[in-house]
Protein: Site-specific recombinase XerD
Amino acid sequence: MTDRQRTRQPNGASSIYFGKDGKWHGRVTVGVRDDGRPDRRHVERKTRAEVTKAVRELERLRDEKKLRKPGKAWTVKTWLEHWVENIARPHVSENTYDGYEVDVRVHLVPGLGAHRLDRLEPEHLERFYRKMQDSGSAAGTAHHAHRTMRTALGEALRRGHVPTNAAEIAKAPRLEEEEIEPYTIEEVQRLLLQASKRRNSARWVIALALGLRQGEALGLHWEDIDLETGYLRTRKNRLRPKYAHGCGGDCGRKAGYCPQREQVRREYKSTKSRAARRTIGLPDPLIKLLRRHLEEQEHERIAAGEAWQGTGYVFAQPDGSPLVPNTDYHHWKELLQLAGVRDGRLHDARHTAATVLLLLGVPDVVVDAIMGWEPGGSARMRSRYMHVTGPVLKNVARQVGDVLWSSPDTN
Structure:
């Protein structure tokens, strides 16, 4: 029997043989197909040495679970569109899905969609990120697209569609963390003074004193606040509204401005983590302010009559309907202008609250509970949010001076 003759191998074992077409062939069992039959991969080469090498490579990829599944190869476009709609959408929050969908539709599919998914390389991604920024996209936008791609490819890797996650290897766009300057105590007092002249004044006191996120503050219901014992619980997060045309698109406007628009997103969801579902004690002045706010809302309810929407929100519109986050943001910007305070993000109020806790010397474990930080990442969050201010630096300098220059010999 010559070495070109085919010998029977045990079930499941790889086989190498010389075919009637004058080429060497190899067959490797790599798994089971969807219909239950063995998944046998075929390779052919001109020499036995070449086909043996190819068979050994298939066996290696099979053993390392890096072999692509059978069937028509995915492109980046077909995989991302399938992933974002059928895999990500049912299992992530509305806001997270919106971020994924924009990255896929606006950036990733136009820029990378034609690549075969299993042949996508880290260099393709790195060149794409540079092109995004050269075209005017911010580094943060490119970085967000990278995170979306890394998540999508991670799912493709788990399902055997790609041998490696190219986004895990590619260098992410560099982000320089912006230094946030919290508002001073004097600026906070000016903001609170101006807020006291406006509707929903307690909204800004809660932001600056307790550091609630925007969604947490706007998601508060009266059932979450106990004014007798003096605490509130954060359990709900107000979501940005999303609308669809009620006219079938005939109005010619965007869905949000359609006269017959329909709300297609729920108003709120449960807070995102166990740490975020927290109980916070209320300072006495804030309890008094919330009592007055409740009385004012009752007057608005009487004035609205049958038009009143009894949604139970602490901070609502004059007819009782929930506040829109975008409107709330513009109210914050107006407040800064009226108070004569420098411009800043609404989230800077949360930085300010964390800094005040640092100035007061509140223990770290209490700070974590108030701010809603997970225990594992609380140290990193404290370093990001809690800024070392002038009074703290002076206090440390005084303590060092007391230690080093307190003895007569040193003096």
In short: The chain has a mean pLDDT of 83. The first strand starts at residue 15 and ends at 18.
